[in-house]
Design a protein that fits this description.
By secondary structure, this protein is mainly β. It has 1 helix and 15 strands. About 0% of the residues lie in helices and about 55% in strands.
């Protein structure tokens, strides 16, 4: 059992028969009422985020999460299909569950799947990944009014702001946590 004062962002907990990841945690002591933890929890199975306040007397259970390598195969009608790299079993996760991670999945990409009691819950991408730019408008000289960036489209169809010097065919590194440009890869 975990005390609320020991909860950290990124930790996985079991609460009301569901598995959650702590997205945000704010611990506060409120005089004689004791301590509270105001937390944003992401349900790893549904992708829903909810805000919950825990009291000092609440005990939470840490979830035993296993990580396994898997390969992304394809997506069809909001379902994303994967293959376990060890036993070659195929399974799927829906778009609501994986959320914005769907913007960074290319067929054949190896990723980590989070399991709880041998059931796939969600996926975890590397923090930074490389992608090919498939569309980039030409940049007009001296056009720095908008901060020197333009919208480009990567091979997954995701669009993001990138510096003016990025052109079609370039390989760029993207932070998969916030979907932002990091650097051009040589």
């Amino acid at each position: 059992m975990l005390e609320i004062s020991k909860i950290k962002v990124g930790q996985k907990i079991k609460y009301k028969d569901n598995i959650f990841e702590i997205v945000k945690a704010n611990f506060a002591k409120i005089g004689r009422q004791g301590a509270v933890l105001r937390a944003k929890l992401k349900n790893l199975k549904t992708g829903n985020v909810s805000e919950i306040t825990f009291r000092d007397s609440d005990k939470l259970e840490e979830a035993e999460i296993q990580r396994k390598k898997a390969q992304f195969l394809y997506h069809d009608d909001g379902e994303y299909f994967f293959m376990d790299n060890q036993n070659f079993d195929q399974f799927n996760l829906n778009k609501d569950t994986i959320g914005n991670s769907s913007n960074f999945l290319i067929e054949g990409t190896e990723i980590e799947i989070l399991y709880y009691e041998d059931e796939p819950l969600n996926l975890e991408l590397p923090v930074k990944m490389n992608f090919k730019v498939v569309e980039a408008p030409p940049s007009a000289k001296g056009n720095t009014v908008d901060g020197g960036s333009k919208k480009v489209k990567i091979e997954t169809g995701y669009k993001l702001n990138a510096p003016l010097f990025i052109k079609q065919g370039d390989i760029i590194k993207i932070n998969t946590e916030d979907g932002k440009y990091v650097e051009r890869v040589q």
